[in-house]
Amino acid sequence: MAVRALLHYALEVPDQAVGERFYKNFGLVSEPGRDNAVHLRPAPLAREVALLYGGPKKRLHHIAFGAPGDEFQATRESIRRAGVSEIDPPKGAPEGGFWIRDPDGHAINIRQETLPALPPDPPLRLNSPGHITRVAERGYPDDLEPRPRRLSHVLLFTPDLDRLINFYTRILGLRLSDRSRSIIAFLRCSTDHHNLGLLTSSGPGFHHAAYEVGNIDEIAMGAMKMKERGWEPAWGPGRHVIGSNFFYYIKDPWGSYAEYFHDIDYIPEDCAWEPQDYPEEDALYRWGPPLPEDFGMNREVE
């Protein structure tokens, strides 16, 4: 029993047009929908990964996970045995699957789906000491537009870290990858190091969504393009400790973030991965600019 994929997230936002412009500048493609939501997807994929609904302020509308094949009914049975009640879908939500709420009140959609296969990038051609893969060819990038390939994870604020870890691991079958004390935890339902992050706060909230790009040049060029288009401030580039990925975060119009990342830890299903509990001072990043003072601020509980 387990969900196997993070399919999409949905936000309520006070200005859908501004939100659509932010995410299109970030590199996503918007698609017309039959509802009142803005549907956004990476260009290489035919499936939306982000939905924007209208609302009085920014908040998480729902998250959708995939439980393909027999996992769908097994997950439903696990939820029933745990005494978790199914709920009606939120207004305007996509049809399909079934709905529950996590202990923080977030609406969760479980769908009998998996993610479409991602078209592979060509192998990276990098020269390093003793390893030459690019010969008689200049290596600097062309003028790249940001081009996210896929959604990898979302990070949520929570007032009770252990309660949510217990819910998502025991009820939905996610696995704990790593954590840092009672501050932050990272869970996975795929081979990515994490698909769901949980950060301690005084209340629930949405912190960021992370999108994979093809190399460190794409992170830097995406950062430049977003700055040119007026989207500041940000944090990065840098490299995380937990997950190991290169990162760059851009603040969205509502005080949360969208992240470009590259090279995250890969954990096969049958891997004997042992979660670590990192000390706070060694948990966030190995190198990069200083952390902005408000990076961990939950603006939904101000």
Tag the structure with descriptive keywords.
302 residues; alpha/beta; 2,3-Dihydroxybiphenyl 1,2-Dioxygenase, domain 1; ten-stranded mixed sheet; seven-stranded mixed sheet; 32% strand; globular
Kindly describe this structure:
The protein has a single domain (5-115, 146-301), classed as 2,3-Dihydroxybiphenyl 1,2-Dioxygenase, domain 1, CATH 3.10.180.10. The chain has helices at residues 16-26, 70-81, 161-170, 216-228; strands spanning 5-13, 28-31, 38-42, 50-54, 59-66, 98-101, 107-111, 150-158, 175-180, 184-188, 196-200, 205-212, 234-240, 246-251, 257-262, 276-277, 285-287. The mean pLDDT is 96. The strands form two sheets. The chain has a ten-stranded mixed β-sheet. β6 (98-101) and β7 (107-111) form a beta hairpin. The protein has 302 residues and is α/β, with parallel strands linked by helices. It has four helices and 17 strands.
The averaged pLDDT comes out at: 96
Shape: globular
The CATH architecture would be: Roll
Please give the alpha-carbon distance between the first and last residues. Answer: 38 Å
CATH topology: 2,3-Dihydroxybiphenyl 1,2-Dioxygenase, domain 1
**Radius of gyration over C-alpha positions, nearest whole angstrom:** 19 Å
Topology of this protein?
Blueprint: E1 5-13, H1 16-26, E2 28-31, E3 38-42, E4 50-54, E5 59-66, H2 70-81, E6 98-101, E7 107-111, E8 150-158, H3 161-170, E9 175-180, E10 184-188, E11 196-200, E12 205-212, H4 216-228, E13 234-240, E14 246-251, E15 257-262, E16 276-277, E17 285-287
Parallel strand pairs: 1-4, 5-7, 8-11, 9-16, 12-15
Antiparallel strand pairs: 1-5, 2-3, 3-4, 6-7, 8-12, 9-10, 10-11, 13-14, 13-17, 14-15
